[in-house]
Model the fold of this input.
Amino acid sequence: MANFEFNSKHIIDRLMERFRLDQTQACDVFDRVRTTLESHTPDDWRFTDSPSSRFFVVEERTRAKFFGMSYRTSSEGKKLVDTLRSRLHDPSGLARDMGTIVKDYIQEIQCPDLRVVHDMRTVYGTGPKAHIAEERVLVEQSRASVTHTVPFYARKIAARPNAAVLEDGTLWVRQYINWVGQDPNGSEYYVFQPLTKQGVDKSQFRVYAHAHNGAFQKVDECCVCANPDCRPNFPTWKKPSDVRTESYWKLPTYLDMLLADLDYCERYAAKGAPFSAEDLQLLYWLRRIADAARQELYRKL
Done:
């Protein structure tokens, strides 16, 4: 079963307030959405590939928009945040231990098997304000302006082949799935499909490995029927255990999620967002940790 967290009372209260439902009706809607999400969502699912990690789930009958944020976590990641909270009274000690803290945070960022959690926070109505504010900012600014560290190597992205002309004279184009790891010298794996004047041939798939030295090699291929429900299967390719799809690496960690929340509250404190003196202290240290981690991860680029 997928990992969901629900702000249950708040969501039910908002359903009653925004859709004029009584408590029984609101609970029925909430229970239906929760049960459906938990019973149908794979453990490793991501609802969006946006680096903001925020998403909407629309309930058909009421048109209520359930708002959530996905993150990846482990017991060590949550312990790191709990330790920070407990040491806010000791800034000199935190500063002294910053190197170790950043190292632990980077290990969390680069871990390929963290548990994915979907934090369902509230529900919106159907009016013009029912949008994800951070997502709108990203679109308007035309850049991925997010608080957390997305551990991609820019030089690798810049070198990715978008198309391949094969020896048989066919043209293949890179599609929407990339598998990447955290080794700067490791290979990345891409799905390619053939392109003709009529468009992309959706029945053929190939996985190619692209190494940091430019090596480009087919590792598997398959054909599927014309039915859109048919899915590709690559029987011979043994995907390395440390390689995941890009959408996994874009997910914030638990620490990142908290940083994003506090960053938002600081910016909107004047409009009533809850933001205490302790929150301000914690935000300061989270920013220091994230900034130091970025410098460490990207210093060789």
Notes: The chain is about 40% helix and 25% strand. The chain has three domains: 3-73+114-141, 75-112+145-152+252-298, 154-248.
